[in-house]
Amino acid sequence: MKKTIFTTLGALLFVISAFAYSGGNGSELFPYEISSKADMVELATNVNSGQAYTGKYFKLTRSLIGSTDTISTTIGNNTYSFSGIFDGSNYEVAVKINSTERTGLFGNISNGTIKNLGVSGSITSSSAANIGSICAYATGTNIITNCYSKVKINATSTSSGGYYSIAYFGGVCGYIYSGTTTITNCYNVGNITTSVYGTVYVGGICGGIPSTGANNKIENCYNTGTILAKTTNTNTDAYAGGICGSAIAATPIIKNCYNAGNISSIRSGSLVSYSGGICGQYGNIQNCFVANVQITNVNDAPLAKIGRVVGGTSGTYANNYAYGMITLNGNAISSTNANSKDGKDAVTANFQDQAWLTTNLTWDFTDTWIMPGAGEYPVLKFQEAALPPSANVTVTVNSSNAALGTTLGSGIYARNSSATIHAIPLANNVFVSWSDSNTDNPRTLTADDDITLTATFASCDNSALLAEIETLETANTNLQNDLNTANGTITTLNGTITTLNGNITTLETQNTNLQNDLNTANGTVTTLNGTITTLNGNITTLQTQNTNLQNDLNTANGTVTTLNGTIIGLENDLSDSEAEIIRLQNQLNECSTVHLAKVKSTIASIYPNPTTGIVYLNTVNNVKVYSQNGDLLQEKTGDSIDLSGYATGIYLLQVGDEWVKVVKQ
């Protein structure tokens, strides 16, 4: 027993002694716990001294933000790399780094994984060749997923001594040098500004993927930061892209991504610069969109190396879209080809519509993307927990039957603002209620969340209403007759049951008497054997009759139970029928009032209709003009109203208490 205790205690002490940082031993079950700035500094010191932590696990246990926790060291440098698995646990690390080597929270990773991590703060450098908020430089097989950057990156140099001949800067990863690196479910909102003496590649997610970096992938990522790639050397190039500066290799895929940040590239000499909404040059780009942004290539007057999706002409493009009014160096470019460097024209509302994105770009809104609110672009699902309530909400009002009435008031409203909705019956019809049973019309509600309401209308065709009431009353009479019949049947059955119970009682009495006679007879067995036999036969007969009567009684009781259920159903149907009759009678009464709102094809006080411009009224009145979507377009008091500035179509005019359709030609 003592030996067992000492062995267990020794093993426990060994495990405890193996733990490092704020806890853990680097295994998947007990990852190293990073809970302080000191832990991060220790990790950087060890990696930068050659300890790669290959296959070791790390877990961030809290956010490291604020002045006392801001990180100024880089994990990995020009010589040594990190090869472990770092899980940020959805926490954020603030950085303030100014370095001359590969610069980012992780400067160099090789066969590593970084996930569930956010980085904020700033990175500046006057000589680093690779900068990325999450990682600056990647080789081997790497995974970067569920990460984001809010880091402001500023890289500057004024002489050839300041930078390498080629530099790569990215919001998430600076440079994918070789091997296979996948960047998925990541975003950047930080601005990246460069002005360097050398060729420069800048992207919102990744700076560049060179020709040795095949089979890499950037998928389900987005950028909203401003991207500026500027070279001050007359013999070097500049590449700027919303997602990637350049993806030269044969098979790097950029898929299901979008950019909503301005893009600019500037060169000084006779060489080239590239600007693209998704990628500056090259790339295999699929199912991406570019929002309403400005894209410039300062020294590309012919627009040869600038594009809404890709700046250059090399690469593969499939099913990409761009806002139709994007300007390239101030020039609006239109395209109907989704497989071109400029993508296919679309409008902002398309990019803010989950159904459109699912249908046209096949984006996944189950596990990957979500819509944060009306009038906003999609964000990644892992952001959902941190999202504030949307600033806007959508109010949708529909008509139950467009032939009977229309509605006004659908639109996007500021959250918690007031929205007024209208249900407008067409001629000879009446508004009944909204789908939530409210009957106010017009109705003012607080737009505190997305809501859809449907207005129910009914016909005011009196003959039809009377016929419907008559049909219901006939059905009501039939239901009452069925109910009376069922009640009568129950009364009869109750009488039968009483009779059966009496017969059973009589038989039981006879049975008792016979049994008494049998007992008496048994006293004189020899003489009365014949009598006993007779009495036994009589008892058997009475028992059979009793059983039959009991069966009849059970059948009668079952029939009563069934009829009771039928009666309850008939009573419910009768109640529903009476309620419908009352509703139709009320509708008939309402249709008879003089206050019925109607939309007419014309009224005598308005002319001309159709019109090409001004509509005149016979008298001065208050006039409101609505679109068919219910938007209030104009309101004035006078004897005319000008529609000449509106597109051709049908408009609704409210003149005092009357409504009229006006056709604008």
Describe what you observe in this structure.
This protein is α/β, with parallel strands linked by helices and 665 residues long. Helices cover 26% and strands 36% of the residues. The protein has 6 helices and 49 strands. The strands form 7 sheets. It has a 22-stranded mixed beta sheet that branches. The protein has a 6-stranded parallel beta sheet with strand order 4-7-10-15-20-25, with no helix packed on it. Strands 6-9-14-19-24-29 form a 6-stranded parallel beta sheet, with no helix packed on it. Strand 1, helix 2 and strand 2 form a beta-alpha-beta unit. Helix 5 runs antiparallel to helix 6.
Mean pLDDT equals 84
Number of helices: 6
Q: What's the gyration radius in Å?
A: 42 Å
* Class from helix and strand fractions: alpha/beta
> Quick one: biggest sheet?
22 strands, mixed
Tell me the helix content.
25-40%
Q: What is the structure about, briefly put?
A:
This protein has 665 residues and is α/β, with parallel strands linked by helices.
Q: What is this structure's SSE topology?
A:
Elements: H1 2-18, E1 32-34, H2 37-48, E2 57-60, E3 85-98, E4 109-110, E5 113-125, E6 130-132, E7 135-139, E8 141-156, E9 166-170, E10 173-176, E11 180-184, E12 187-188, E13 192-195, E14 199-203, E15 206-209, E16 217-219, E17 222-223, E18 227-230, E19 238-241, E20 244-247, E21 253-255, E22 258-259, E23 263-266, E24 273-276, E25 279-282, E26 284-286, E27 289-290, E28 294-297, E29 306-307, E30 316-318, E31 321-323, E32 327-328, E33 331-332, E34 344-346, H3 348-351, H4 354-361, E35 369-370, E36 379-380, E37 392-399, E38 405-408, E39 411-414, E40 417-425, E41 429-434, E42 443-447, E43 451-459, H5 462-523, H6 525-591, E44 599-600, E45 606-607, E46 614-626, E47 632-642, E48 649-655, E49 658-664
Parallel strand pairs: 1-2, 2-3, 3-5, 4-7, 5-8, 6-9, 7-10, 8-11, 8-12, 8-13, 9-14, 10-15, 11-16, 12-17, 13-18, 14-19, 15-20, 16-21, 17-22, 18-23, 19-24, 20-25, 21-26, 22-27, 23-28, 24-29, 26-30, 27-31, 28-32, 31-34, 37-43, 44-49
Antiparallel strand pairs: 32-33, 35-36, 37-39, 38-40, 40-42, 41-43, 45-46, 46-47, 46-48, 48-49
